[in-house]
Design brief:
about 325 residues, alpha/beta, 11 helices, NmrA-like
Length: about 325
């Protein structure tokens, strides 16, 4: 049995991970959130705690017999990484063995495109913080869990995960339309289902070896053109591959019609302001390879079978 503390436990992905961790009653979870915890699923093996993430002494006490801390707090909702840094510091003081910062998406290529997705700066800052902490000796074991895009989002508007809500992407398969960047039609993107991410995290919790610093989780690599051809074959209908110019994106011009960003961390009255820069950032990230993650956890878990894109498309759309 491993006792795991989950910060930002009310987020969709965190709830999926919690469900997986306690499904066979092997592990215990301390679920930390700012909101009233009574509104979230109450289940065996999960102890909910309401906290501000500002009281280090409280966190140290909560982490007293915890072996792993997983952070799911959205970085743009944590200015200056105040909560994230406090979680690390409290974990170290409490003697926690392992820590996972709030990654859960792009690869290390994020460094090269951060100007296009500045809301992710906190991820890079926390990577530097952890590396600096372990510079002279290992103070705490950590891993940057990076699964690329959620494959479930390619099923929009269908709700395919229990807790992660559907969200539109630049791959609008409901409209048989894929938006990409000209010249990057064959560049790879990693797509991983939410259920596979949760399962890998559970395996990682139980993994007896040392965690890799960069922990890529590669469900499947696929390019916009390959996805176009796959969907056309499975659905028997033509799919439009609509291409925009990278030079336009670099100049803040989005020559493609895309819906409002609907991420649950963005209030409804802010979604219009977020949408244009958000889509430009996502398209740039796809074109520059930031969603093509490495496969460290695939290699460490060779017997785990990931959901293929073909299986996902067939089950969701045929």
């Amino acid at each position: 049995m491993v006792k795991v503390a989950v910060a930002g436990a009310n987020s969709g992905l965190a709830l999926e991970v919690i469900d997986k961790l306690v499904e066979d009653h092997k592990h215990e979870v301390v679920a930390l959130c700012r909101k009233d915890p009574t509104q979230f699923p109450q289940q065996r093996g999960v102890h909910w705690v309401q906290t501000t993430f500002k009281d280090k002494a409280q966190l140290v006490k909560l982490f007293g017999d915890v072996e792993v801390v997983l952070n799911f707090i959205v970085v743009h909702n944590d200015p200056g990484n105040e909560s994230a840094r406090l979680l690390v510091d409290a974990a170290v003081e409490a003697g926690v063995k392992r820590f996972a910062p709030s990654e859960w998406t792009m690869s290390q290529q994020l460094y090269s495109i951060i100007d296009s997705v500045p809301w992710y700066q906190g991820k890079l800052d926390m990577q530097s913080y952890l590396r600096e902490m372990n510079k002279d000796k290992k103070v705490i074991e950590y891993c940057f869990f990076q699964p690329g895009m959620f494959m479930d989002y390619a099923g929009y508007p269908h709700k395919l995960a229990k807790h992660v809500p559907p969200m539109p992407t630049v791959w609008q398969l409901d409209e048989l339309r894929i938006v990409g960047v000209k010249g990057h039609e064959d560049d790879m993107v990693t797509m991983t289902t939410v259920s596979d991410i949760a399962a890998v995290v559970k395996h990682a919790i139980e993994y007896e070896g040392e965690w890799p610093e960069v922990g890529g989780i590669r469900g499947q690599q696929i390019s916009p053109r390959q996805l176009q051809q796959m969907v056309e074959k499975i659905r028997g209908k033509p799919v439009q591959l609509e291409l925009v110019e990278q030079s336009d994106l670099d100049n803040g011009v989005l020559n493609a019609k895309l819906p409002l960003v609907q991420h649950p961390s963005i209030p409804e009255d802010q979604r219009e302001a977020w949408s244009k820069p958000g889509w430009i950032g996502i398209l740039t990230a796809v074109a520059k390879g930031a969603f093509a993650v490495t496969d460290e956890w695939n290699k460490l878990l060779p017997d785990y079978k990931f959901t293929s894109m073909e299986t996902f498309i067939t089950q969701t759309w045929k």
